[in-house]
Structure formats: structure tokens, C-alpha cells
Amino acid sequence: MRLILFDIDGTLAEGAHVTHMASMGRAVEEVFGVHDAYDPIAGAIRRTASLASGRVDSELIRLGAESAGTPSDVVTAGLETAISLMVDEYESRVANGADPGRLIPGIEATLDSIDVDGTTLGLLTGNARGIARVKLVALGIWHHFDVGGFGDMAEARADLLPIALDAAEVETGLQVTVRDTLYFGDTPRDVAAAEPLGVPMIGVATGSYSADDLLEAGACDAVAQITPAVVEDAFASRS
Question: Is the dihedral of CA 63, 64, 66, 70 positive or negative?
Fold first, then answer.
């Protein structure tokens, strides 16, 4: 069995962050009393000389709340509630016409081509599962994905990979091996998440980072876009 995992923002979709982050900000305000949380999140990330790219939702909620002075134990206690409110807010906004983003050109055709018997498609994403579902239903590709590791399941992306692999084994009843797994993402944090288990990570230069950036971060390859040929070549290179 082949398992192919995908990040969402910057890998499958673009322009999806505005509604997502606005919904997160609303949840942080409601649960932790932090106003204009989108700015504290961005500010905290700038102060640590980093970017939001590649972070997971639970991590970003914590970062936004704690950067405004909310104690860590209070964030921990309220995190599940904040995630639930964020998902509800996001779903409501999208249902009322907010922009869920756009598919990266060529992604829909690629998914149609590679979603075949013997291949399981999954998500390894910083999006909370509810956000991922609403976003990808709106973009018409949610039905392709059977399993995933999502940003409400752990506060570090690297911890999501074992979750996704375990979910694939439960879904298929088959053993999932590193040899038969690929992971596509667009940030150095995607690369770092794959390293501990040795899962081949292919960088996709459709987000904020170039192919050279992703190769320098340690991606096993970097491509301009995901195509069926890229997928087949990646598996063939290890046969």
C-alpha cells in the first residue's frame, strides 16, 4: 500500500489563511479575552524571527494567547474550547460567503489521477480537523482523503506524523512502511516533521519558500508543483 500525505495551506491551497486566522482570532478573544488576537499572533512570530508557515493551529492559539500575557496553564485549560469555537466560527464564515481560498493549479487533476486502489491519500496539516474539512469541502477535494494528522491533535507538527501513520494502518488494516510513504509540504517545518521517522518529504515551491530553501532545509527533493509524474518518480526512485 502506498500512503501519500499532504500539507494543506501552500501545498494544496492558497489564499486560505485570512478567514482561518480571523476565526482563530475570534476564538482567542472569546476564550482568553485577548482582543485583536491576529496581531499578537503575528507580532509574537515576528519577535521569534519566525513565520506562521508550518505551525499548527493549537500552537498558534497558544502563541497568540500567551504573547498577550495569558498564563500557560490557563491556555492549556481553554485550548480545546478555543479550537471548537474557531472551527464553528470558520464554518459559519465560509457558509456566509467568506473566502476559503483556492486550489493550487493542477492539484484537483493530480488528486483525481493518484487516488486509486492501493493508494491511500491523507493529510498532515496544521489545520484543525474541522477547519480542514470545511476548507477542503468548499474547495471540492475533501473526499480524496481517508486519514490524517491535524493541528488540534498535537501542538507540534512532528507529533502529527505518527498519528497519521497509525490512522492509515487502522483505516487499511495494512502495515505502513516508510518505503511506501511520501509527504508533500511547502515549509521547512514540514521537512523537520518528516525527519524523525525518516519519511521522504518532497518540498513544493508553491508557498512562501523556494525549491532551494526547501532543499537546504533537508527535503529529499523539491518541485514546482505536484503532478502524477512527480509522485510516480518519487516512488520509482526507491524501488
Answer: negative
Q: How far apart are CA 171 and CA 135, in angstroms?
A: 22
Look over the chain and give the mean of its residue pLDDT values, rounded to a whole number: 91
Can you tell me which residue has the cell 493518484? 114
Cross-strand pairs, 96? none
Burial (0-12, 13-18, 19+ Cβ within 10 Å), 71: exposed
User: What is the arithmetic mean of pLDDT over 32-40?
Assistant: 72
For residues 8 and 42, give the distance between their C-alpha atoms in angstroms, rounded to a whole number. Answer: 20
In whole angstroms, what is the distance from residue 58 CA to residue 86 CA? 11
Do 207 and 224 contact (CB within 8 A), yes or no?
no
Question: What does the alpha-carbon distance between residue 213 and residue 219 come to, in Å, rounded to a whole number?
Answer: 9
**Each residue's pLDDT tens digit, 175-226:** 999 889 999 999 999 999 999 999 999 999 998 899 999 999 999 999 999 9
> Whole-model pTM?
0.93
CA 227 to each of CA 81, 101, 137, 183: distance values in angstroms, whole numbers, following the listed order: 38, 20, 21, 14
Taking the C-alpha atoms of residue 162 and residue 49, their distance in angstroms, rounded to an integer, is: 28
Copy the grid coordinates of residue 105. 493549479
Neighbours of 21 (CB within 10 A): 20
What is the sign, positive or negative, of the torsion defined by CA atoms of 210, 11, 229, 170?
positive
d(CA 78, CA 30): 10
